[in-house]
Amino acid sequence: MRLRNDASGYGAVTKTLHWVTVAALVAQLVVGYLLDEDDGGQGRGRGRGRGEESGRGRGRGRGGEDDDGEGVLAALGGDDVLLRVHVLLGVTILVVTVLRIVWRRTTPLPPWAPGLSAGERRLAHATETALYVCLLVMPATGITLLLVDDDLLPLHVASHVAFFVALALHVGLVIKHQLVDRDRLLHRML
């Protein structure tokens, strides 16, 4: 298998970076869901400057309250372990995204798939750009939330919304070509 992209398709490095990103995002979604499950409605940030509720978000634990020992989180080591995993996955996603951008700058993309219309090419380019921006903004704002304050929470949440919209368009285009057009577009990234 060739390492670099060429006229026949994506190379091993591009494919590996793509699927490592997908795996890290799926893991991040699961961990984030488990953190939300344990959050008990206390919010997501550190909660600085929020009066009595200050420090009751993820960054500071659960405000000194003892975990009752029930549920999935207790079996996995609680919120602190999941928060560490969440941060590690976020940093991993950020690093892999930077690597993807550097790799993309140093190796040309293969030609567009012949089955893509001009409109689909524009949509693919726009969603890909949006995904890259979100893959930089989400972890950067998440790390800032943890280290500084939760003032960036609206941007962090908005980047998630934008990410899922762009992802739905990206995956939708692939599914359309795979199931409706049957032109094996997905095969280019496998």
TrEMBL record:
It holds the Pfam family Ni_hydr_CYTB. It is a multi-pass membrane protein. It is found in: Cell membrane. InterPro entries: Cyt_b561_bac/Ni-Hgenase, Cytochrome_b561_oxidase, Di-haem_cyt_TM. It comes from the Bacteria. Belongs to the cytochrome b561 family. The keyword Nucleotidyltransferase does not apply. Residues 10-190 form the Cytochrome b561 bacterial/Ni-hydrogenase domain. Keywords: Cell membrane, Electron transport, Heme, Iron, Membrane, Metal-binding, Transmembrane, Transmembrane helix, Transport. One of its GO terms (molecular function) is electron transfer activity. This is Cytochrome b561 bacterial/Ni-hydrogenase domain-containing protein. The lineage of its organism: Bacteria, Bacillati, Actinomycetota, Actinomycetes, Micrococcales. PANTHER family: CYTOCHROME B561, CYTOCHROME B561 HOMOLOG 2. It comes from Cellulosimicrobium protaetiae. Residues 41-69 are annotated as: Disordered. One of its GO terms (biological process) is respiratory electron transport chain. The chain crosses the membrane at residues 12-35, 81-103, 130-148, 154-175. The keyword Iron applies. One of its GO terms (cellular component) is plasma membrane.
